[in-house]
Design a protein that fits this description.
The structure is a single chain. The chain is an all-alpha fold. It has eight helices and no strands.
Length: 200
């Protein structure tokens, strides 16, 4: 069953025009995410432990944690992939849905938006275990992140019966808003730190 979902997810990531038409409830989409991410999660834990123990600096830092170092890494990765990311997808979907409705591009429900966002996460989630491979892994995951923009545009189009361009514009608006918010927060923090008294 997990392998079937993994294959279905890979097909959707590689051929989004056909593979992202499936309608799902929020719970169904979450279940799809967890089943798809199981094998990448296992690979992520295994590869991270191998790489951490191969690289001298990382191995030294891990040894400071004692016997629980490997367990700590595994728990942190499970937390990230199975809790932090799903919560992020739920919130991200809400923001996309609001933007899509305000712009008049989205005709479907929040479930449709969340389904599209889950589909768009598959290219990165499927390859996330490569991130611990120096340089090459980062490049591959970065390319997958760029491809996921196309996937989400097509998925929005399929789920909300709109154009791929409209789907892309919804993604672009949230992207621009996020950049502006990050810039404002960074500027505010810089100003706040600048007003702190300097140590003698």
């Amino acid at each position: 069953m997990v392998l079937g979902v993994l294959k279905e997810g890979i097909d959707a990531a590689l051929h989004p025009s056909k593979g992202t038409k499936q309608k799902m409830t929020v719970l169904d989409a979450l279940a799809f995410y967890y089943k798809f991410s199981l094998i990448p999660l296992i690979l992520l834990v295994v590869v991270s432990l191998i790489v951490v123990n191969i690289l001298p600096q990382a191995a030294t830092q891990l040894s400071q944690l004692g016997p629980s170092g490997g367990i700590f890494i595994a728990v942190a990765l499970v937390f990230y992939l199975w809790l932090a990311i799903p919560i992020g997808l739920l919130v991200e979907s809400l923001l996309y849905h609001i933007i899509g409705k305000v712009l008049g591009f989205f005709k479907g429900t929040y479930s449709d938006t969340f389904t599209a966002v889950v589909f768009s996460a598959l290219p990165v989630i499927g390859l996330v275990w490569l991130i611990f491979i120096p340089l090459l892994g980062s490049v591959i995951v970065f390319v997958a992140s760029i491809w996921s923009i196309y996937v989400i545009s097509v998925a929005f189009s399929n789920q909300h019966k709109t154009t791929v361009l409209n789907g892309f514009l919804v993604w672009l608006v949230l992207f621009i808003v996020a950049i502006i918010l990050v810039a404002l927060v960074a500027s505010a923090l810089q100003s706040a730190l600048g007003t702190l008294p300097q140590a003698a």
